[in-house]
Amino acid sequence: MAMKRAAASAVRALISSGNSAPSSVLASRGLHAAAGSKKIVGVFYKANEYASMNPNFLGCAENALGIREWLESQGHQYIVTSDKDGPHCELEKHIPDLHVLITTPFHPAYVTAERIKKAKNLQLLLTAGIGSDHVDLKAAAEAGLTVAEVTGSNVVSVAEDELMRILILVRNFLPGHHQVINGEWNVAAIAYRAYDLEGKTVGTVGAGRIGRLLLQRLKPFNCNLLYHDRLKMDPQLESEIGAKFEEDLDAMLPKCDVIVINMPLTEKTKGMFDKERIAKLKKGVLIVNNARGAIMDTQAVVDACSSGHIAGYSGDVWNPQPAPKDHPWRYMPNQAMTPHVSGTTIDGQLRYAAGVKDMLERYFKGEDFPPQNYIVKDGSSRRGALEGHMVPFPQTAPNDATCDSIGALLREVLSALASYEFYDFVLKRRLAKEMRSWASLKLLIYNQPDRRSTAQQSVYLGWSSSNWAGPVPDPANQSDFLNLATELS
Amino acid sequence: MAMKRAAASAVRALISSGNSAPSSVLASRGLHAAAGSKKIVGVFYKANEYASMNPNFLGCAENALGIREWLESQGHQYIVTSDKDGPHCELEKHIPDLHVLITTPFHPAYVTAERIKKAKNLQLLLTAGIGSDHVDLKAAAEAGLTVAEVTGSNVVSVAEDELMRILILVRNFLPGHHQVINGEWNVAAIAYRAYDLEGKTVGTVGAGRIGRLLLQRLKPFNCNLLYHDRLKMDPQLESEIGAKFEEDLDAMLPKCDVIVINMPLTEKTKGMFDKERIAKLKKGVLIVNNARGAIMDTQAVVDACSSGHIAGYSGDVWNPQPAPKDHPWRYMPNQAMTPHVSGTTIDGQLRYAAGVKDMLERYFKGEDFPPQNYIVKDGSSRRGALEGHMVPFPQTAPNDATCDSIGALLREVLSALASYEFYDFVLKRRLAKEMRSWASLKLLIYNQPDRRSTAQQSVYLGWSSSNWAGPVPDPANQSDFLNLATELS
User: Fold this and answer.
1) Measured between alpha carbons, how far is A408 from B42 in angstroms, rounded to an integer?
2) For residue B187, which of A166, A298, A342 has the smallest C-alpha distance?
3) What are the tens digits of pLDDT across the range A94-115?
4) Where are its TM segments located (chains A, B) (predicted)?
């Protein structure tokens, strides 16, 4: 199979080049398991007759990431099920004694506080893919667990999918295809609302990894590209991508012919596209949302698609998932929806299966994971799960033994941050006042007691608009940080 | 409507910048009509209820390119119909006295030799769009007619559409969408054969304007891009686009995960993808064909889609068109077909409506058209309609009055060729032996008697592999051409 071979070989190249552990992060961590037999449970969707149709279809229960032979040959137990809900499900039986739980966002096993409490042996929660919404991260952190995903494994997949959906909507593909299968031929009924993408204004709400990959792929289409994010890109990257930063979301949205949603679901973004916001969009706007269904007000989207205010809506995310048979988005006009699949292409599956295997291998050896994969590390969370918008202490940061004071610790933090993607992403721009709404900072020193390591200390760099009233530090000047730290310490 | 406004403004910019006549081509031609009332007939598809849904929907019979008011205000008669077939159709009634016939490839009025014979006043055949397959070009040339189209008006539209179709097939969009509308949710049934485009080998058969625009848009997807054409691109352009030239089509095809057809329908390409050629493609290959349906053997495509040898086939061209209700491509598995619409987006319609208006305006004033628009000019054909692969004499070429010898004429030709796109496209590469199959040349001097101008002389630069056995001239050395001309003269 042409596509099968091409996908597999691309992933082999990726794994061999990028996923090996740099020696600097190989320091042993108490949290990780010593070698020994582990009980690993994987929860995946059943593929039934499709499981055998493609040897690279690794993400289903039958093929179980392709790691059974490897795990069992090392003496580990590997239970795989798709039965994940309710008190009598197969998963529930294994909760009390599993060490590792592997799940996917496509068929999520909800890891509630209650399940975490019952899981006395649980150490590691792995997402085969991206997105750990289904895990109670606070409970996981409090229990000292590690939660990790295969960061980056789906970004290309989703960005490509978004561009496909933009074109499907702009060019009015589906009515033409439906004519074909219905035995019809009526060019007018398609052409009266089919457009070129060229020359249109496309705005992405969020320009993280997926949003940037989308913008890069949009560039040769000669569109007017806009992006809104909390952060302006590096000017060089911005100019390479050819997109214009829009600080004010509500100033950007009414300019857009096409809006793409590329932001996470948070309390702030939930229901963000409600009746009022949609009313302010251009009449005839097209919306692509592969982020999360709940960012949209479901009924407001139905109403605007029915009135024609939204001329097309496409995405693979729903609220809830799986979408029930009577979900109104299935039946609204001008929708180009699919089930939640954009991140689970065969190529994506090969990447996240390889990423999960890599993390299990490191876990067995007591080695660190690639730093970007951690959501909660040994009970310490990144991505704001514990408080506001905290960013994690970088994985290369010192431990107690090398830091005898807050000041020394902070010096280490600053030095470590320089190599950490969040440094660029947050500090340089935030502190240079490019985001004026974040005018003040606070540094939080956390003492996070851990079930296994009593003295484990994590340092977070966070911010709030209320707790710090001093001048905004200059990111180029490390002493500003030390001064700040002194005042706070 | 967001898209409507954006499309219209982009086209206004295009027309005002690019379509005005350079003063050098404004020389009056005897063939063009003197000022006076003309009878112009336009044949377009009827849009019925869709006609009024978008003021920019110019390509339908009801909106008739938006030029009625303008034509009638100048005293011309403008008949518009969609009734074009059979001896008693509306078009047939106007054949005897029309001066200009405007047609589209989307609802083609067949201009046969018989109709041309009956059309005693006919001077000009305009295609609103691209493609003049529906005109008997030999008969038109013999009758001294001019046939012109709006070259370039659809190239972006078709290239975008091709990329959409590639993504739809690679990512297995349609089965997911059909699940949505059927109330289903089965990620496995989609994911087992959904891939990323990244890393796949995409080959275009033909890399003319559309093929190049496609390759440019594919570049950020990080594919392995191949192209086959009679001509290798300029090395700089090739490196910008990032595609590799494949001289031997049958060597390229088996390498491709995705094949895109971007070549014209000729006697040579008709049925080119037959059972034997398809059998040599990779199992699981995806094919996109927005060129012409007859390039494929219809049944061979059905069989290969049914067996899975072709894993997906998408395009908007059929043989015949409109596709009858029982056309097997409507019902074969893994097709993502539409009616023939890719070149008739609203943006495309605005461009070709503006292009037709521009040519009519020039016709009324007796001015030349933009040179690239001519298919047959005053009875002289380009694009090989009259003989082999002849290329036209450039529009800026001298007429009899300025050329008193073949040698002087050729010097003028060579100088004119330097500014003509075909020079780059054919001469530089052909003669530099990059296409070894074109090892020899001949220059043909035509005397083309014309109904209106008895002494009209056209010069063609053509080639054949048999009539010239001398050394291949160096394109950088004009004297090589003069020597060649001398020998032939």
Assistant:
1) 82
2) A342
3) 999 999 999 998 888 999 999 9
4) none
CA–CA distance, B231 with B159 (Å, rounded to integer): 19
Q: How far is the C-alpha of B70 from the C-alpha of B59, rounded, in Å?
A: 16
Residues 168-227 of chain A with CB under 8 A from chain B are 168, 170-171, 173-174, 176-177, 179-181, 183, 185-201, 216-217, 219-221
B133 vs A: CB within 8 A:
no
The Cα angle at residue A182 between residues A176 and A184, in degrees rounded to 5: 65
Tokens of A393: 């202490």
Q: Which residues of B touch A220 (CB under 8 A)?
A: 216-217, 219-220
The pTM of this model reads 0.77
- CA A218 to chain B, closest CA, distance in angstroms equals 8
Q: How far apart are CA A79 and CA A89, in angstroms?
A: 13
Query: Where do the H-state alpha helices sit in A368-456?
Result: 406-417, 421-422, 429-431
Spatial neighbors of B456 by CB under 8 A, at least 6 apart, are B30, B31, B378, B379, B380, B448, B449, B450
Cα B135 to Cα B149: distance, rounded to the nearest angstrom: 12
Token pair 């006919």 in the structure block, residue = B122
The interface pTM score, or ipTM, of the predicted complex is 0.77
Distance CA(A422)–CA(A409), nearest Å, equals 18
Residues in chain A: 489
* Number of H-type helices and E-type strands within chain B: 18, 15
Q: How far apart are CA A84 and CA A80, in angstroms?
A: 10
Supply B129's token pair: 């769009």
- Give strand pairing partners of B124: B100, B146
Q: DSSP string spanning B387-410? A: STT-BPPPTT---GGG--SHHHHH
Burial of A464 (0-12, 13-18, 19+ CB in 10 A): middle
More confident residue, A208 or A487: A208
- Report strand pairing: A258-261 vs A201-205: parallel
Extract the tokens encoding A57: 């279809």
Q: Is A267 annotated as belonging to a binding site? A: yes
pLDDT tens digits, chain B, 489 residues: what are they?
Answer: 566 666 565 445 444 443 333 333 332 223 444 458 999 999 999 999 999 999 999 999 999 999 999 999 999 999 999 999 999 999 999 999 999 999 998 888 999 999 999 999 999 999 999 877 788 888 888 898 999 999 889 999 999 999 999 999 999 999 999 999 999 999 999 999 999 999 999 999 999 889 999 999 999 999 999 999 877 888 888 999 999 999 999 999 999 999 999 988 877 889 999 999 999 999 999 999 999 999 999 999 999 999 999 999 999 999 998 999 999 999 999 999 999 999 999 999 999 999 999 999 999 999 999 887 888 877 665 433 223 223 333 322 333 333 333 334 444 444 433 333 333 323 333 332 222 222 222 232 222 222 112 112 222 333 322 223 334 344 444 443 333 333 322
> CA–CA separation, A442 vs A484, rounded Å?
8
Q: Is A283 on the interface with B (CB under 8 A)?
A: yes
Query: What is the distance between the alpha carbons of residues A283 and B1, in angstroms, rounded to a whole number?
Result: 5
The total number of residues written for chain B in this structure: 489
Residues of chain B positioned with their CB less than 8 A from the CB of A215: none
Residues 454-473, chain A: which have Cβ within 8 Å of B? Answer: none
